[in-house]
């Protein structure tokens, strides 16, 4: 039996020069290729290339290709490239699957926390509001047209994401319910194949945070408040940005401006007692899900999406964002040596289900 031919649409894609571009798409494709013929169209690429066994095309490369595809999968569809492509080429595909990750279907000014003062721009906010109205309307029109053609399916990365998709996209609730799945992003295998073991001989600090600095949704200011209210503990923040060019860094906090490869994160975590990973907004929060899966004690925000993802994990403690500045006498030792952690973000609960649903969609 011949394999199903799948084309993946992605705004960007990893290469030897940039290994981290939309890596969550690539990690899926490495598993997909065991079951399907997988090709990727990367809109940012100007050339065709191969990366870890995945064939990647530019738009021009696709247009010169004569390969026939059965299914199109669009990750985080945008109106600049994805929508234009789908209107032009939708007739070439039996079915189109949209993987909805977050920002692409949300009016950002209504959801994202206000920028830090040093990063605010009133004019950009106005432009963003206008653009998002156009974005939502354009995507709504596209999805409804594809519903009429019986060609569309949605994968949402969380129930929260589906709920807020329906609050913003003007379409039929019944049609979305009948043509969608909720499938979480999988944890990287490095967090599944290994388990957290605190290495006292290599101890670096009590708490580790891996966070971009300039986006308020990642809560660097909350980490600072937590550190200030726990002066007897030490904190390391791994991330890049300008936040501490404008704010004082506490004496018990060290900033390490570097990007860590995913495969190297588990061994780094072993040198710390607890992960501190607050958030103000997420459609899943893959990194904190990976840390929890790894078995490390972890503190995150007590907001609905974090509860949806992590409520079953006994090594996770939830704190309201308004209480990060309170010394709660938290003892990370209470969360150590926990066995039988949930397999919620393992492949058999995530990407394997995607593969099965793709096959069902093809045969429908």
Automatic annotation (TrEMBL):
Gene3D superfamilies registered for this protein in UniProt: Glycogen Phosphorylase B
Keywords: Transferase
Pfam families with a match to the protein in the record: Glycos_transf_1
InterPro entries: Glyco_trans_1
GO molecular function, one term: glycosyltransferase activity
Residues covered by the Glycosyl transferase family domain: 216-314
Keyword Transferase: yes
Name of protein: Glycosyltransferase family 4 protein
Upper classification of the organism: Bacteria, Bacillati, Bacillota, Bacilli, Bacillales
